[in-house]
Amino acid sequence: MPSSATPAVDAQQPPSPEPVRSPLDRYFRISERGSSIAREVRGGLATFFAMAYIIVLNPIILGAGHDKFGHQLDNGQLVTATALTAGLTTILMGVIGNVPIACAAGLGINAVVSLQLAPKMSWADAMGMVVLAGLVLMVLVASGLRQRVMDAIPNGLRRAIAIGIGLFISLIGLVDSGFVTRNPDGAHTTVPMGLGEGGQLHGWPVLIFALGLALTFILIVRKTQGAILIGIVVMTFVAIVINSLAVIPDTSWGLSVPQVPDNVVGTPDFGLIGHISLFGGFREVGWLTGCLFVFTVLLSGFFDAMGTIIGVGEEAGLTDENGQLPGMGKILMMDGVAVAAGGVGSASANTCFVESTAGVGEGARTGLANVMTGGLFLLALIFTPLARIVPSQAATPALLVVGFLIMAANVKEIDWSDFTIAIPAFLTIISMPFTYSITNGIGIGVLAFILLRIADRRAKEIPWLLNAVGLCFLVYFLLNPIEQLLGAK
Question: 155-177 and 287-315 helices cross at what angle (nearest 10)?
Fold first, then answer.
């Protein structure tokens, strides 16, 4: 009689075969990071729509400046340069760095280029200094000095630099919108600026700004994805309607008049690409001032980029137990390449955008999301007529919103109980908007920190590298009397 017992089954089951992974999956390590192609594409879309406002905003900031010879940059060419460099550098960061961190022209750095560098030289010279800053950054990464330079600046002072830049671009937004205007010298008043015209707000364009600011802040409070871009698009539409119904002089709108273009698709104008002079700026301002300008461009985006890289990496769960991202050297090198590429394209320095967290929130974990984001920036090149209809009043609310977000993220991180850091931080923050110079703010903060630490008998706590930077800034502020003493003037 046959046994009814079930035959023994070998407990040693053969391992199940690993699922076949596509070359795309293997290269970007999509499955390994717990993501999928669909999630990466979705994340790339979210990041693009969260930061697409830069296509409009960067041309407004750069276009507002004049170089030493009175030349302004063309808005259409700036739109092309902004979209092109953002697309290429974002794709490079994704393909080489393999992180979902997009790049575009950095707010704050473009203000340095437009309002500090360009007025003392030609645009080509100013963009050449941006390229030099990128090259220096790449050398710092290759030599391992970038981390040492970062460590030399106290955390409180780094935070203050970011806040000062936020206030600086907020002031630019208030002025460019017409909400705040400069009082003419003939008024013989001690008040340099005032509300609107003669202390009152006038005209539809200023109303567009006020409504846009309110709308964008409401969307921020409600945690709406792409709040800044939505605010710009909605208020541009409102401005087009108002401009078509009311008789408004074109000059009231600033650089761009809200009128529906004949075509939404146009040929991109690459006229600014490669229009640089690497060392021409040094002939205009001298080697010391030129080096400080390069240092200012470098420092303006240096710490923001590092913080953004770590912050986005942590949110995506890509950092190790020490808070380090895999392949950090490649990521930092691509950041340096982005700075230089922005200068070559005359779009100002490109840097990492914190809006990349929008893509991470949608599931992005690899550089494939960047390929999607960068591809959309390149696609935007043929839609430049749409970007050119956005008036300053519809775009500048974004500057105040970004200024607020920068302050909210950094002000609480400063140790206000330690006066040797609190006072330099305060001086840094107020000096940038009040002297209309990021360079002055950084220099005053560094010198104040060194002085107060020495006065507090804590000179040994000052890194030698910071002392060297402080010496450069001391010469910078005393440059005029030094030149007179040496008979150079």
Answer: 100
Q: How far is CA 430 from the centre of its chain?
A: 20
What pLDDT shows up at residue 433? 87
**Helices marked H in 246-380:** 280-285, 287-315, 328-344, 356-361, 368-379
Q: Are 245 and 53 in contact (CB under 8 A)?
A: no
DSSP state, residue 180: E
Pairing of strands 103-105, 193-195: unpaired
pLDDT tens across 406-428, in order?
888 889 889 999 999 999 999 99
Angle at CA of residue 168, ends 164 and 171, nearest 5°: 140
pTM comes to 0.72
Q: Three-state DSSP class for 415?
A: coil
User: Are the beta carbons of 431 and 164 closer than 8 angstroms?
Assistant: yes
Are the beta carbons of 422 and 414 closer than 8 angstroms?
Answer: yes
Q: Which of 228, 227, 260, 261 is nearest to 243 (CA)?
A: 260
Please answer whether residues 124 and 393 qualify as being in contact, where contact means their C-beta atoms are separated by less than 8 angstroms.
no
Is the CB of residue 160 less than 8 Å from the CB of residue 429? yes
Q: How far apart are CA 21 and CA 33, in angstroms?
A: 13
Cα 86 from Cα 379, distance rounded (Å): 11
Dihedral sign, CA of 359, 362, 365, 367? negative
